[in-house]
Write a structure and sequence with these properties.
single chain; mainly alpha; Arc Repressor Mutant, subunit A; about 75% helix; about 0% strand
């Protein structure tokens, strides 16, 4: 058994096993054995909180759960990394209300797990909006009358790299409009950003679509 394994076992056996103490020791002493003991103590519980939070957002994809859990583990690792270029805020037991006598260390990690799960859920929704918007624009370029299912197929066939290159070649206002469309923004929001009325947004959009057709044809 290595020295690290012995220390890791010791953290669980000598009374240091509570989560707050393990976090303190990891972030203060940077001992990998403390990190190992901490991850062993909270791994399953973090996964459970992440999965439950994602389900509340309508996401049951195991890959999303893995992504959020990896973000939590990364934050835990960075607590004890004194050389990290962008260190995370230190854990302080007094700043984490546990309630009911619960371990403040677990209360902190539970909040981190919920927050990272919400981040993943938000990124998933943003990606879905962009994918749908990209499909819609691609369909408009090739066939304005295409329905949503056909639009998705068209987006795949057009090769997204070509479409993105064509968008980059638009004039600044048209490029801004198309980018906002890809982000799922409504016409009223786009009008506000561009400082124009909604009717003008429609005209700019029509010209941008026409120009995209020309660029893709070339």
């Amino acid at each position: 058994m290595t020295d690290q394994e012995e220390r890791s076992r010791g953290y669980r056996a000598d009374g240091r096993g509570d989560i707050a103490r393990l976090i303190d020791y990891w972030q203060d002493e940077h001992d990998p054995a403390a990190l190992e003991a901490l991850l062993a103590a909270v791994g399953r519980r973090v996964e459970h909180v992440v999965a439950r939070t994602l389900r509340r957002h309508g996401i049951r994809d195991p890959a999303a759960c893995d992504d959020a859990t990896a973000l939590v583990v990364d934050q835990i690792r960075r607590l004890g990394d004194s050389h990290d270029a962008a260190p995370v805020v230190r854990f302080e037991a007094g700043r984490t209300p546990a309630g009911g006598g619960a371990d403040p260390g677990w209360a902190y990690l539970r909040c981190v797990a919920m927050s990272r799960a919400r981040d993943v859920a938000r990124d998933r929704r943003r990606w879905e909006r962009r994918a749908t918007s990209l499909a819609t624009i691609a369909a408009a370029v090739s066939s304005p009358a295409a329905d949503v299912e056909a639009a998705v197929a068209v987006a795949d066939d057009l090769a997204r790299e070509r479409l993105h290159a064509a968008i980059a070649a638009l004039d600044e206002r048209s490029r801004t409009l198309v980018t906002l469309l890809l982000d799922g923004k409504t016409q009223s929001v786009i009008a506000h950003v561009l400082g124009v009325c909604e009717g003008t947004v429609s005209r700019i959009r029509a010209r941008a679509i026409a120009r995209l057709r020309e660029l893709l044809a070339e």
